[in-house]
Amino acid sequence: xxxxxxxxxxxxLRLGIPLLIPRFALPAIVASLVIDAADQTIFQNxxxxxxxxxxxxxxxxxxxxxxxxxLSTVRNWQSPFAxxxxxxxxxxxxxxxxxxxxxxxxxxxxxxxxxxxYFFIAYEAVRxxxxxxxxxxxxxxxxxxxIWIFIKLPQEWWIHIAQLDFTDxxxxxxxxxxxxxxxxTAISENLWFVGLVVVVVVGAGLALRxxxxxxxxxxxxxxxxxxxxxxxxxxxxxxQPDWQPVLSWYMFEKVALVAAxxxxxxxxxxxxxxxxxxxxxxVAFIIVVNAFASTWLARQGHTxxxxxxxxxxxxxxxxxxxxxxxxxxxxxxxTVNEAAAVFFVLLLTLIVTIFDRFHRSEAxxxxxx
Length: 369
Prior knowledge:
Blueprint: H1 3-16, H2 25-46, H3 54-76, H4 80-103, H5 108-111, H6 115-127, H7 137-161, H8 166-174, H9 183-188, H10 192-211, H11 226-229, H12 249-267, H13 276-299, H14 307-330, H15 338-362
């Protein structure tokens, strides 16, 4: 298989699998997480590709799949308290990533840990067998605190402060073999590790058996289809209208979210020397123009039959805007990777489209508890 085919398959998976998160939340976000962790290893072991530019795309794709995960909470999380908790965790992390890209201070990623991702996974894991509406406010806060303090802070320190590589650490410091040795060689020379794994598995099984009496009875058989487990038996307010006032919380959040994500994308563009200020103005202008255009069309009675048609229409507008931006950059002293700019504009268009669709059709379905 050629290097280009492997690259296209991996990138297609990184772009396509997150689109399943709104419907199949748990397996889709876990798959996105696994592919994010494995993609560069796949390239290094199976291709001769130069991965210098891919580092920038990798950062953007991380923000991309987590943004879709956040937007799926708008569609699926019927507990307002759980939703607001996830919303706070998401925007807190997003602010940290934005500050890191502006300043380059790695400690910011420890101060602003990615608690949202594991909180999302834990909440959706509950949904596989139990109705998450049963979770009290105290349980939700406790879950977020445990993930923040005992999981994410150590992980963020390991990755961003100590900057340790798990593979190198295990092989060099734990197994005592060269870092280029295979895992088969490392384990065969350290059979104690197999025994340790057996002990851990047995211990976990015993712990689950002891905790079983305290685990509540399932509300439904195990399943990962979110739509099958949404509670439609309660009285809910009607969905929001197809248009929103330009001066509204809806529009403020939309501008804030897309501006932050856009700026992060622009700052990680490969072969680009754009500054923060040179990015914010055009991004804000494009967002506001999009907001006014979509609001005006909705007020005229125009609606989109499918998400795909709305995406195509908005993509046409935004690609033209991106080309205008590229033309302006060419007239200045700055440089920008034009192919990467168009790629990121299409990602942003997808995010804006999903934001609008989920808020218009689903935001009214939150249960007041």
